[in-house]
Amino acid sequence: MDTFISLAKQGYESYSESQNQSHVHKTGGQEFNSPDNRPPQSHRPSYNQDEVSQHVDSSNHQFLNQALSHAHKTVQHQSDIDEDGVQNLKDAHEQAFSSGGPQGMAPDALGGAAAFKVSRLAGGGGGSSGGGNGMQSKLIGMAMQHASSLFDQSGGGSQEAKQSTMNSAATYVTQLLMKKEMSSFIGGGNSGGLSGIMGMVH
Predict the structure, then answer these.
(1) pTM score
(2) How many CB atoms sit inside 10 A of residue 182's CB?
C-alpha cells in the first residue's frame, strides 16, 4: 500500500512539474519570444491604403499599389534596419534637404531621404509614434509624396525609376516606424544600442 501511495505521489509531482513548465512556455516564450524576436502584432505598424492615398497626390496614385506591396513583402523578410542602414538614410536626408540637393541621387537614396524626413515626425513612445493606423498611413503617404517631389527635383527620369523611388520610401519609412515601435516595446531608454540607433532619427 505504501508503495502504491509513493508511486502515485511521484506521478502527481511529475504531472505538476510538466504543467508548470508548459505554463511558463506559454506566458514567457510563445507570446513574447517569437523566432524572429519581433514584438506582438499589435506593435507592428500597419496602414490602410485608402488613408495612404489621401496624403499622396492623385498623379502619384498609380505608384501606390506596387510601392505598398513592395514594402509589405520586404518587411516580411527583413523587418529590421541596423545602425548602418539608419546612418545611410540620415546621410541621404542631409544631402537631399541640406547640402547638395537631390540632383544626381539614386532612386533608393531619394526614397530613403524622404522616409527619414517623415520618420522624424514620429515620437519615440508606442502611443505617439504610431498614433494608430491612421497616423501610420499618413506617415507612409507623406514619405511617398516627399519621395515623388525629390525625384522631380533631381531631374526626373523614367516611370520605372520613379516607381523605385516610391517603393524605397514606403519600405524605409515602414522599417523605421517598426524600429520605433520595437524600441518602445522593449524599454525605450533601457534598450541599449537600439535606443542609440533611434536617437539618430531625432
Answers:
(1) 0.68
(2) 20
